[in-house]
């Protein structure tokens, strides 16, 4: 879905497009930027393997793609990127999902190669966002961020009002960024995406990891964030996470 908004309409609600060739919006003290780049080349992929300590990475990694949200007055900043998401995958280290023996051969990279699925080939990640750190200019692949830790996230009774978000309000900016994708050797799909939507009253985003292992398992991990524009000096962000999974067998029993 592509949203095209007239610049005069943006000005009427206190918003303006980002400059310097950046794709995004400035509104009520927030800069919201999306970057869409091509998949990693082989040399950069090798660097990522060394950094992450693995020889297994998704087929398609959009390593320079990102969503960045920055509040200029308070310094609050959150971004979403593939490197940190894969660092979360490596750290969590889930056991591999069992696939039918007849399907294992698809994971071979060479004929007659023995297939040992001793790692989480689904690339399931607990990742829910990052916050920036300074980049070391001498390191070509210094992580552009770190998993959210210094931002103060407190438990609260308040929830994101999904019904209010469904109310008709002009969409000033919308984008979807694919961070990584893998077809699991034709055994399903593993996909991490982030979507952002900006309205006159708020911004809202959805980070989604979606997994389908054909005939075996479906898994969903969602993180939603919402921020209203009421407090321009010190914004509050609501964050909700939801993890779900079910086997094909269990779903068939329900239907």
TrEMBL record:
It comes from the Eukaryota. One of its GO terms (biological process) is TOR signaling. GO terms for cellular component: cytosol. Pfam families: TIP41. PANTHER family: GAF/PUTATIVE CYTOSKELETAL PROTEIN, TIP41-LIKE PROTEIN. Belongs to the TIP41 family. This is TIP41-like protein isoform X2. It comes from Rhodamnia argentea. The gene is LOC115735835.
